[in-house]
Write a structure and sequence with these properties.
Elements lengths: L7 H26 L20 E5 L3 E7 L8 E5 L3 E15 L4 E15 L10 E5 L2 E7 L15
Antiparallel strand pairs: 1-2, 2-7, 3-4, 4-5, 6-7
């Protein structure tokens, strides 16, 4: 038995809430960064995952998913596909060291994005292909053959 997908409006609502939450975090981060003072006791909750901007298109033979992943390399991205959805996850670890005559600075940054994209029609995940070019991940998933509807005429008693 196939699992039913939640309606599209349901997922879009949560995407909007996630984007709104990210915007609030960004505003507060910008506000505290505007001071040259450090406030160690004031910390916003960490944001482990940001969302990924995607486009989903459908042709006669396939479903095409394009995801914007600027700043990531091909090796930092993981893609999984099922008959009903595509799972994209990317993680970047960055470390910077800068030395000078009278100072030393070292920074570490961890960035991660994750998204599950529901597909409009069933696909064949085993035949999916992906390519990554100029910060855009393109995934092509061939459509599954529509199931034959079984039909039987029923006699009326």
């Amino acid at each position: 038995m196939r699992r039913r997908r939640p309606p599209l409006w349901f997922e879009e609502t949560f995407d909007r809430i996630r984007r709104f939450e990210n915007e609030i975090f960004r505003v507060f981060d910008d506000f505290w960064r505007s001071f040259d003072i450090s406030f160690p006791e004031i910390r916003l909750p960490p944001q482990p995952f940001r969302s990924i901007a995607v486009d989903v298109a459908e042709t006669k033979d396939e479903v095409i998913v394009r995801a914007d992943l600027p700043g990531f390399s091909k090796d930092e991205i993981k893609v999984k596909a099922t008959e009903e959805a595509v799972h994209i996850e990317a993680m970047k670890k960055e470390e910077t060291k800068e030395e000078g005559e009278s100072y030393f600075r070292q920074e570490r940054r961890l960035g991660a994005v994750k998204r599950v994209i529901p597909l409009p029609v069933p696909v064949i995940p085993e035949k999916a292909k992906a390519k990554f070019e100029n910060g855009v991940l393109e995934i092509r998933l061939p459509k599954a053959e529509p199931e034959e509807t079984k039909e039987k005429e029923i006699e009326i008693e």
